[in-house]
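Quick one: co-fold with heme C.
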Amino acid sequence: MKKTITTLLVAGAAGTAAILAGAYSGVINVGADDPHHPAVYAFLSMARDRSIEARSKDIVVPDLDDENLIRGGAGNYNAMCVGCHLAPGVELTELSQALYPAPPNLAKIGIDASPASAFWVIKHGIKATGMPAWGKSMGDEYIWGMVAFLSQLPKIDATQYQALVAASGGHQHGGGESQTRNHDGLDGSNSDHHGNVAAGGEPGRRGIAAADHHGGSASESDHHSASSNGDDHHDGSNSSSKGSSATDDHAEPSSNTHTHTDGKVHVHGS
Ligand code: HEC
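Sure, here it is.
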């Protein structure tokens, strides 16, 4: 018995030392374009799911059918989440395809676990994944708004999405303005966004306009079906991410120009 324990301890210590030495040598590729080994991925997923489950089990869920809650959530989702999590009519963004682990397409899955765990994830974020802790700048009721909205999201189409966002009063939350300067995590040009508010513009107007412009209205889908690459690559939030009228996924190999619905021609460096 004693011998078995000693053997196990020695083997454990040797294994730990080998892992440490390997990591120290730099052999682990931390590049986001190099997927985890499936076993590592499975381990991390298990740890994440169990962690979220344990931490959200006592959270009390409010009435998620409340229309005000859903409407408020739509405006915030459109302003802060579309760039990573997509929306009806927004199939792909630069962020959605570049992050690893990839942000789930919430337009399709909504909240796939429980509302309580979705609330926990939105409030606290997920370490080393790109999912921000929105609770640093947003009050709980605004986070519940997004949970309520997410439970509806897979059921609505692009037109209904835009109508909800337009009805939402835009982007609003419970944090102090000074804390929230850089809150949306997508955005290198927050001064624009907040500049609008300060100047008396409708809060959230930019987000809505961006969704209108890119989000699957009849004219927009015409625009896309007419384009030869067939790649619906516009992003409802990109206009704020780069501070220009629109930024695009430049995946198409041959073309580096295209025309937007507002008639502006965009030329990309390749
Ligand atoms: C910069 C990109 C980014 C932004 C912005 C972002 N998220 Fe995420 N989010 C992620 C990533 C990446 C994951 C997956 C993390 C993982 O695999 O563990 C995630 C996971 C989630 C999940 C868990 C989904 C599931 O079923 O596992 C929810 C819910 C969520 N995000 C909601 C939101 C909401 C609401 C917003 C806006 C307030 C938001 N996220 C903004 C990157 C982002």
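If it helps, Residues 176-255, 261-265 have pLDDT under 50 and may be disordered.
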